[in-house]
Amino acid sequence: MEDIRALQIDIPRGRRVPLKDVADVYVAPTPNEIAREQSSRRIDVTCNTKGRDLGAVAKDIQAKLREVSFGAGYHPEILGEYAERQKSQTRLYSLMLLSLLGIFLILYADFRSYRIATMILLSLPSALSGCILTAWISGGVLSFGSLVGFVTVLGIAARNAIMLISHYRHLETEENEKFGIHMIIRGALERITPILMTALAASLALLPIVISGNKPGQEIEYPMAIVILGGLTTSTVLNLFFLPLIYWRFGKAREAVMAEPELS
Prior knowledge:
CATH class of the domain at 85-263: Mainly Alpha
GO cellular component, one term: plasma membrane
Keywords: Membrane, Transmembrane, Transmembrane helix
Radius of gyration: 32 Å
Strand order of the largest sheet: 1-2
Structural class: mainly alpha
Oligomer: single chain
Organism: Hufsiella ginkgonis
InterPro entries: AcrB_DN_DC_subdom, Acrflvin-R
Number of strands: 4
GO molecular function: xenobiotic transmembrane transporter activity
């Protein structure tokens, strides 16, 4: 080290001085690798989670980083698995909107009525209220698994709604059942078994995941199971009680349209 400090260097006017006169020479820890991304230097700080889900830990890290003042040109970014999950969630939001559009087109293709298709589609968000409630009770973190649960419940609720409305149409057109409260009650009672069996079978399949708890290795399955269980509860109530009332209220216009040819 002393030899380095005594190293002679050239200065203006042809003179030579030892290095120690113009610089501090000492041993200091430095990165053994300088990483760059888009022409900017970066330093990676890695960590693993234990006993908590990745999303909650990442939110805590972001909260702490907001309290840290960085110099000009420096900024923090959370990358790795968390960043990939965020990208997946963004894609899932886009696919969810496309699925809603697809559901509406399928409903219109089946019922040939914008009114009935819109009525069913607008009733679906009510089925998701149980998903939102259980997600909030379990910690309020909307993870990738939770979003998958939302899409699953949306599909189940749409299927049950299509089955119920199709049965009402069958009673009117094939069995000549007069539109009214008697038909509404009869249709709901005849559809109660398949709707309850769907919800019960799915709930029993997810129950072991819920009972085992939110442990490492189940960061996706556990929130998905919790959200689906809550959504199945509200969607079943919606399909058996509220959707029949909605159809009774807005199906009267359809009865008048069907009666016009008979009057003429």
